[in-house]
Amino acid sequence: FDGVELKNISVSTDELTLADRLDDITESAIKTAYNNIYNFHKLQQPSPEKLESNGITLWREYRAIENVGLYIPGGSAPLVSTLLMLAVPAKIAGCKRIVVATPPAKDGTIPNPILYAANLCGVTEIYKMGGAQAIAALAYGTATIKKVDKIFGPGNVYVTEAKQQVARDVNGAALDMPAGPSEVMVIADSSANPAFVAADLLAQAEHDPNAGIVLVALDSQFADNVQKELDEQIKHLSRVSIASKALEHGLVVLVNSLNEAVEVANRYAPEHLMLEVAAANEILKDIQNAGSVFIGHWASEALGDYASGTNHVIPTYGHARTYSAAGVSSFMKSISFQEVSHEGFLHIAPTVERLAELEGLDAHKASVVIRRGTK
Amino acid sequence: FDGVELKNISVSTDELTLADRLDDITESAIKTAYNNIYNFHKLQQPSPEKLESNGITLWREYRAIENVGLYIPGGSAPLVSTLLMLAVPAKIAGCKRIVVATPPAKDGTIPNPILYAANLCGVTEIYKMGGAQAIAALAYGTATIKKVDKIFGPGNVYVTEAKQQVARDVNGAALDMPAGPSEVMVIADSSANPAFVAADLLAQAEHDPNAGIVLVALDSQFADNVQKELDEQIKHLSRVSIASKALEHGLVVLVNSLNEAVEVANRYAPEHLMLEVAAANEILKDIQNAGSVFIGHWASEALGDYASGTNHVIPTYGHARTYSAAGVSSFMKSISFQEVSHEGFLHIAPTVERLAELEGLDAHKASVVIRRGTK
User: Fold this and answer.
1) Which residues, given as ranges, of chain B have pLDDT below 50?
2) What is the pTM (predicted TM-score) of this model?
3) Do A366 and B29 touch (CB under 8 A)?
């Protein structure tokens, strides 16, 4: 499918070593992004809680998901940032096996920046494969690839559908979050720079003809100015045909107040919400539904997409109402524990017996009663 | 479908008030369970992290999911415990609307203990409805019911299928976790009491003919003794036909060591894992995949099912490899924030530009470049 014949789909140690040959500027950019992502995600390690009372101790412990698969789309460009956004939290979580699947170029290679980033993250198990077949290989395993427990990462419609299918199969693999086209909503008042706003909308529009592009403006003159900037700036983009398709179904929402703008954002639940308004800090507490919020005129979305340190795998399509961006906890699960002394048992036994009776569950009650008579 | 004609499916204030009429023992049992569940879950409130460096501030804030639906199955008995296990963390999370759906009895009423527990949790929006149609009403809304964002709770195969269908629909509602039959795995050594072990296996078996019942034993004589106890104890149960069907496909796994037993548990990833062994505390750190772990001879699973304070909505069917039990975080999501000063922007801009170039995303780069020339 990738138009290439491979002897071995596994990336060799030699190939990984070659990856050190990057120019200094690229190397430094990847390292800076890595460090910023690492530092913010390092703070996300969960702290277990413990409760002791009346002879019963309750607590939860977090464990890394043992085997995780990271799907990194290929195609036109090496998505180094997506690799960092997934491998860094997986590494911090402590996943035993971090497996990367990414389609090879026509010459059978994986771009050096991807291999360099994988090296940085300590990822050594990399397969040259893409598409729905890569998801199947990760979810079910093959003769050469051991199956994984959960699959992360973006992809085209085939990849997305495959992820959903294997997640519904108990013998498959869980998925990170439901997928949908990327979105940005910019709330802008008269303090905003129409050129900045237009550039931010275009940065989203170049991703996907189906991308969601929404400007929430407090006056129509400002919206017109943004439109003029869009018309001008789009001419200079290489991905102009994608961006213009996305803009065709873009929206301008005119509101009377910042509160109304927040109400629009909460109903839409955008993946990215940019607050290019003077009083941004006054409305933060009212934002209920959004994936990632960018505050102020200098917080271009691209900063968070690449390097500031927040995760760029964010719920889209309204799913921010119930889902969070990827993070360390996406690569972990908790286990509940309870330790019960004889005294603790005797103390709680009558409560458990009464509730089991109420629910008509005899055997539940019996499992308590049989312990009552024994020391 | 429930064989009853209702004038109003909404539980009235009068009905909720009547719910105070419970006998003292029942009232006290529900209150004790409520308090224990509340106290343990109260510790689960997430604490947001914040990172400031080089003019960029990153943090996450947690928000309650605004509208949640709790499905409480009806049928033979009032599942008070399930209501508590879901409504308590929803309340702690701060969900604005907590909606309960539960099928009415033939006389059109909801059992008093359910209403009493709902009162305790401050839940006042209760609908007398069950089955797939209740899930649809919650997910999509009706003329009288406002839609919810996420649906929690167990149910029969129709309810489970309905939850999955609405979760796949972007206009539907998210679900708590994939469902499967309930399971228990008991690891027992010679320190265990075969009568206790048998009682614990039966407590699981009475739930469902498809329940997973697994004994991991260190010697075959002990396993035989448990079998004898099962044969004897099952005779006295009201739900003997369900329990015996579950036992028909139950498993006994004989292992040579406690380490081997843990390996079996990690591969199976049981919903409930009981450690009826002398050296339980030595193996806790090795348990990687399990929903809820019960330690020692007095920690009957029924304690956790009802009243000790841990959650009883736990991943089944191997999903404990990637999912956690329900908790406060199940009723919340996080939002990422970043605030960027002009200095912060200038500091990170070259990194972002280089990475955008590398990924061939012009407009991303342009959204940074356009800000570079402006003060």
Assistant:
1) none
2) 0.96
3) no
